[in-house]
Amino acid sequence: MAAVDTARAHAQAVLRIRGLALAAAALPAAAAVVLLAGRFTGRIGAPGSPDAAGWDAARWTVCAVAALTLLVAALAARRHRRAVPPQTPAVPLGRAQAPELYRLIDELADRLEVPAPSAVALTPDCDSWLEDVPAPRPRRRRARAAGEAPTAPVLVIGSPFLWWMRAGELRALLAPVVAGTAAAADPEIAAARSFLRALDASLDTASAPGPAGAPGPGGAGPHRRGPAALADRVTDRITRRLLGACRAHAAELERSVAGWASEQARGVDYGLRIAAQEQVGLAYAGWDRLLTRVALPAWRLGRHPAHLNAGVAAALTELSRRDRLADGYGSRLGDRPACDLLEEPGAVDAAVSRLAAELFFGAPASGGWRELEWADYPAEVVDAGWRARAAALQSALDLLAPQARPGAPTLTRLLGRLADGDGERLAAALAARSARTDAPAPLLEPVRTGRDVLVDHVTAMVCCAAVDTAGAVPGLDWLDGPVLLLGEVRRTDLAEPVAQAVEQGQDGPLRAWLDAADVRLEKPVRL
Question: Is the pLDDT of residue 442 over 70?
Fold first, then answer.
């Protein structure tokens, strides 16, 4: 139980810092009260005494300092009280939506002898944790007065785990997370965490402007001026000093709580948890690849795949079949998947997938989101994306033409411009257009050069020509996203000849590829 004692010791240290701050705020007021009481009782600086003038000066000085200190403390307390800790965007999962999942978690909590989480939520991430839900202040005061334990936190589960892991693996993975509710129920640890969250939230609120640059929700903001701005700077300084004083204790507190939870969960499915941890790394890799290679092209067109979690299961299944490092993973697919613990996995998947689009991409460039089924992906994302990029490339070619004359959208024209050394100019024109029209996705996509953009657009033009003249079809690969299928075979040999044509102006290898695929260069591409 060393971890328990260590966690409580660091929580008590945080609370002592809070108490010292309150004492420092009250000390001048206490001194002022003593001086005023001495004046009225005649014991300190009585009227007519030789030292009365000196004590009167000291009395007024201390009273002024006390009033200023109490004002600053009240402003800081008001900021901390009004600050709302940020909540992780997640899809709440009611007990009626997942009775078997709740039963699994309740049984796990009973076995660990800890309080069960108050609720369950799913987030589009490969992690799981407990998140405290701040209760209204009147409710917290009533609970403290009645001696009740704090409200149990919400269990947030990464949605890819439910679709990729088996039910037993999920139980083993969640054991140390659920064990953390014991620390959340400890009054001292809960109070220390609440104090730290209020400090963090007050700084976040102060730096976050409201609508149209207005002050943030806590009343602070970067556009306040005059006395209000001075008060903000003072309270921010106090908050930062408090956080600095608590930083080491807060880190050790959370480390000790994690060790405490790990000790409690050690006897629950320990061997299976080791195997489940391997699946966490695999799920993270598959989820990241699905978002960047598959979902992002659809999001750019205003479509959001409705079943991303089912997609990550398909992607990881494909990886287990394709990658020799994943040998043996396919054998576990016969066990019951954790998503079977949900009453309606499809509806939950759709809600989480919509949240993923809003979190990782934002709002679509035009209109609202339109739901997309995987069966429609090749036609509505792959083919549409290729033709949108081909049209953009055609516009860039028209701009570089003499007198900006529009020409036919043919590969003959494109390859001629590349062979003439116009790749740099085309890349610059496409990069400028992309910066104007494409919504950035910094969380998913690295910064691309103009040459990378040109390679992407030339590839799209070639794929459109192959579809129009050579009988090729657009396809979806769960690991690589949009692909070109010729004769029902995926063509992976197009990248190198396109790169040579763009970077070196050598169109010979690309022409040879087009001839071998029976693609007609002179026929206009349908845009």
Answer: no
d(CA 302, CA 242): 45
Instruction: Kindly give, in sequence order, each residue whose CB lies less than 8 Å from that of residue 110, ignoring residues fewer than 6 positions away.
Output: 116
Q: Please name the amino acid found at residue 122.
A: L
Confidence band for 51, pLDDT divided at 50, 70 and 90: confident
Please return the burial class of 507, using the count of CB atoms within 10 Å of its CB with bins 0-12, 13-18 and 19+.
buried
pLDDT digits over 25-45, tens only?
Answer: 999 999 999 988 888 887 887
| Residue among 206, 274, 284, 277 at smallest CA distance from 238 | 206
H or E element at residue 467: helix 450-469
pTM for this prediction:
0.85
Phi first, then psi: give them for residue 432, nearest 5 degrees.
Answer: -65, -40
- pLDDT exceeds cutoff 50 at 220: no
Residues in contact with 232: Cβ distance below 8 Å, sequence separation at least 6, in sequence order: 206, 220, 224
pLDDT digits (tens, 9 = 90+) for 72-112: 999 999 988 888 888 889 999 999 999 999 999 999 999 99
SS3 for 252? helix
Cα separations in angstroms, 446 against 136, 292, 395, 426, 499: 42, 10, 25, 21, 19
Single out the residue of 1, 4, 8, 6 nearest to residue 188, CA to CA: 8
H helix or E strand, kind and range, residue 495: helix 495-504
**pLDDT attached to residue 478:** 93
What is the 3-class SS of 340-364, one letter each residue? HHCCCHHHHHHHHHHHHHHHHCCCC
- H or E segment at 510? helix 508-516
- Helical pair 52-82 and 226-265, crossing angle rounded to 10 deg: 60
Give dist(CA 520, CA 465) in Å, integer: 7
What is the DSSP code string of 417-449?
A: HHHTT-HHHHHHHHHHHHHHHSPP-TTT-----
Radius of gyration, CA atoms only, the chain? 32
SS3 state at 482: strand
Residue 358 tokens read as 């809003």
Kind and range of the H or E run holding 122: strand 119-123
